[in-house]
Amino acid sequence: MSVPVQFASPTADIAFLLARVLFGAVIAFMGLNHFMNTDQMAGYAEMKGLPAPRLGVVFSGGMLAFGGLGIAAGVLPALAAGAIILFLLVSTPMFHNFWAVPEEQQESEMTSFLKNVVMLGGALVFLALSTVSWPYAIGLTMF
């Protein structure tokens, strides 16, 4: 059961809602992009050595869409954040291994790696807060 949380003010409630929607919408869009560009992304995944690249792209797109929408709406936030965390823990070192690419690709891959690390941090915050009741959330939780 969720523990009710009260932020310091209604403004803080709105700020938390805005953070959820912004973070969740970007993550959900990333998932949608997996579906809109499956062939291109599967080719990249195959080049990076992912087994069953097309299935991996579609599955990870589903994880991102579910995770992003769940965070934005406040639906099953622990599972939503967990899906995002799992995706980022696996994909970040596999696809953005800046240390193992030619020098001309290192800066671009490091930027993508660091962006993923920042998103991982955000997802971890939402996971940590998943045991409290979120303001302006649908409120379906596991705890």
Please count the helical segments: 5
- Between the first and last Cα atoms, what is the distance in angstroms? 4 Å
The Rg value, from CA coordinates, equals 17 Å
Name the shape in a single word.
elongated
Strand order of the largest sheet: 1-2
Whole-number mean pLDDT: 92
The helix/strand class is: mainly alpha
Largest sheet: 2 strands, parallel
- Low-confidence stretches are none
- Pattern of helices and strands: EHHHHHE
Portion in beta strands? under 5%
Extended strand count: 2
Could you walk me through the main structural features you see in this protein, from its secondary elements to its overall organization?
This protein is mainly α and 143 residues long. The chain has one domain. Helices cover 72% and strands 3% of the residues. It is built from five helices and two strands, in the order E-H-H-H-H-H-E. The chain has a two-stranded parallel ribbon. The longest helix is centred in the first third of the chain and has 27 residues. The mean pLDDT is 92.
